[in-house]
Amino acid sequence: MKLVRYGNAGAERPGFIDSKGSLRDLSSVVADLTGDVLHPDQLHKLTSLTESNLPLVDGNPRLGCPVAQVGKFIGIGLNYFDHAEETGAKIPDEPIIFMKANSSVSGPNDDIILPRDSKKTDWEVELGIVIGKTARYVSKDDALSHVAGYVIVNDVSERSYQLERGGSWDKGKGCDTFGPIGPWLVTSDAVPDPQALSMWLDVNGQPRQRGSTASMIFDCATLVAYVSSFMTLEPGDVIATGTPAGVGLGMKPEPQFLKEGDVVTLGIDGLGSQRQVVKAMTS
After folding, report:
1. What is the CB neighbour count within 10 angstroms for residue 69?
2. Rounded distance, CA 160 to CA 229, Å?
3. How far apart are CA 213 and CA 218, in angstroms?
4. Which terminus of the chain has a lower count of CB atoms within 10 Å, N or C?
5. Tell me: the pLDDT tens digits for 74-122?
6. Domains, the chain, ranges and CATH?
7. How many CB atoms lie within 10 A of CB 206?
8. Is the pTM of the predicted complex or chain greater than 0.90?
9. Residues sharing a CB contact under 8 Å with residue 49, sequence separation 6 or more, in sequence order
10. What are phi and psi of 215, to 5 degrees?
11. For residues 262 and 63, what is the distance between their CA atoms, to the nearest angstrom?
């Protein structure tokens, strides 16, 4: 099932994409796609609905983040062999965890706003894991039973803030608009193997990233189990699982970064696509 939230920012309504690709409203069934709705038992009830009984949505409304009230927004760094290689980083022995601010969350096609004094804002297409059931010290074998589904995340990153300003990576990862999520939350039953998804990202129509989740250093089950040993994962938490090679920081002979007017498009097999226009901060 492809779950969405549509409408103006801050006033989104729940919906889903039906078998013909049309948007239908779910607000008569659930108030919003909050953590309690993402529990596997509740999702099973949604998937059993007769779609023809739910109203079609006219027009082409804005899509918001498909998860209402994202809890923790967790990032995993250097989780693809080719990305670690392109940046000259050592292959990590354990997953690298950082946090993206909840205030960075935006819709899949909302603008990316360059933060004040930005010099090196970069792109990263990533598979996002959405937690549906509380996970605390779970085993790898049991980890994916705690997952509601999967989303696309663009882990937008200001590299000078991240790497040149001291401290943790968080300050380069959490700027406003640096967390486009969506367009859909595809439930786990519709993603039989999260380690077999191709992914891509273009800037101004030029290919930048081409990869597959098969190339992760630590797979999705490992990540959920590992993170749950350091913090309780709760319904509505999102884990961005890392990015393949092709980021601006790793481009040769010179790194390339986003500038006002650039258009970023990205997608993952079965999870849809995103499109963002890069704009300068106006205030």
Report:
1. 12
2. 31
3. 10
4. C
5. 999 999 988 888 888 889 999 999 999 999 999 999 999 999 989 999 9
6. 2-53 (no CATH), 73-280 (3.90.850.10)
7. 7
8. yes
9. 29
10. -95, 10
11. 21
> Residue 59 and residue 271: Cα distance in Å, rounded?
21
**Residue type, position 139, single letter:** S
**pLDDT (tens digit per residue) in 134-178:** 999 999 999 999 999 999 999 999 999 998 988 888 999 999 999
Residue type, 221: A
DSSP one-letter string for the chain:
-EEEEESSTT--EEEEE-TTS-EEE-TTT-SS--GGGGSHHHHHHHHTS-GGGSPBPPS-PPB--SSTT---EEEEES-BHHHHHHTTPPPPSS-EEEE--GGGEE-TTSPEEEPTT-S-EE--EEEEEEE-S-BSS--HHHHGGGEEEEEEEE--EEHHHHHHSSS-THHHH-STT-EEB-S-EEEGGG-S-TTS-EEEEEETTEEEEEEEGGGBSS-HHHHHHHHHTTS-B-TT-EEE----S--GGG-SSS-----TT-EEEEEETTTEEEEEEEEE---
Cβ contacts of 168 within 8 Å, gap of 6 or more: 98
Tokens of 106: 């935006």
